[in-house]
Amino acid sequence: MINLQQVTKKFGRFSALKDCNVSIESGKVIGVVGENGSGKSTMLRLLAGSLRPTHGKVMIDGAVVTRKISEKLAYLTDNNYFYPYFTIQQLIDFYHSQFNDFDRNKAQQLLHFMELDSSTKIKHLSKGNVGRIKIVITLSRNAPYLVLDEPFSGLDPMVRKSIITSMIRFVDLSQQTLILTTHEINEIEPILDEVILLGSGEVVAQRSVEAIRDKYQMSVVDWMESNY
Amino acid sequence: MAHSFLPDKPIYLQLVDRISSEIVRGERLPGDKLPSVRDYAIESGVNANTVQRVYRELEFLRVVETRRGQGTFVIENQEKLNQLREDMKQKYIDLFVTDMRELGFTLEEMVKGILHYQEREGGSDD
Questions:
Q1: Number of domains, chain A
Q2: Interface test with B, best of A139, A166, A213 (most B CBs within 10 A)
Q3: Do B45 and A164 touch (CB under 8 A)?
Q4: B49·A169 Cβ contact <8 A
Q5: What is the CATH number of the domain that holds A222?
Q6: E strands in A49-168
Q7: Can you tell me the distance from the alpha carbon of B98 to that of B96, in angstroms, rounded to the nearest whole number?
Q8: Is A29 close to B38, i.e. CB distance below 8 A?
Q9: Which pLDDT tens digit goes with each residue over B30-71?
Q10: What domain range includes position A163?
Q11: Cα separation of B117 and B114, whole Å?
Q12: Shortest Cα distance from B34 to chain A (angstroms)?
């Protein structure tokens, strides 16, 4: 269970998030959506403990989030953060040494699924395969919370599709909660349970995707547009 | 992810319809085992929560039954399956009639039209 209670995050005088109240049940797939600059990444960084709120509280499983949340929260960011001279195998060994919940078996299955060769060096990977390896590393952790910031950013439709399928195949919703930001909403919609819509740092709405379809007869993108 | 979904209707209902249609068409036979929740999620490109809801709904409609520890199966009660077939027919007739009424056709014109259609197609019905 995740709770944001009246969370405000300021960078200097600019408020990236304003008085946000959100609660996320475990075992769901949540899409945090909204325009560029609406506060999506800031919200995820607060969850991952890499930022602290200016006001309010970020709670996961009843405890205030600190950097130590990384023990049970796997976080994928938009940045490149792998040593380029590592091979994929060395990268996997490294993550295995850092996280108790890193599942080597799952990593092997994911590599196989993504058709990646473990002897390849990171610096020799195409952009699409860097996107895939980030997913491999993140989903190989049996962490209760998986937080993915823009996992599809800059990737072609084939890669996006393989990533979506890997999320269905390798995330166990009976034990894990998946939270992600993306602009590729149409593609991800079939696997989302809920969306949190942000606009100018505020939570505009939080709804179940099926409820949006049922109540408004709209896809999420149409519903978003009707909310702006 | 071979199929796509209509944007204006809950995905779980579209999957309930899909599986019901497969049963009515005889693509899934009485007593057939449905894929596991995970496998069907992968096959249809939705998340496991949605598939669970689909199976629950089909169970509620008494189209499938879950056997503890074994999985989910198409029911073997032929009477109930005939009922499903009949229900689907009625549902599509209702949709057809509603659409045609919106276009201003009377029921009589629709019936005539269908009879005419039957004549034209030679009444073949395979």
A1: 1
A2: A213
A3: yes
A4: no
A5: 3.40.50.300
A6: 55-60, 63-64, 73-76, 145-149
A7: 5
A8: no
A9: 999 999 999 999 999 999 999 999 999 999 999 999 998 899
A10: 2-227
A11: 5
A12: 18
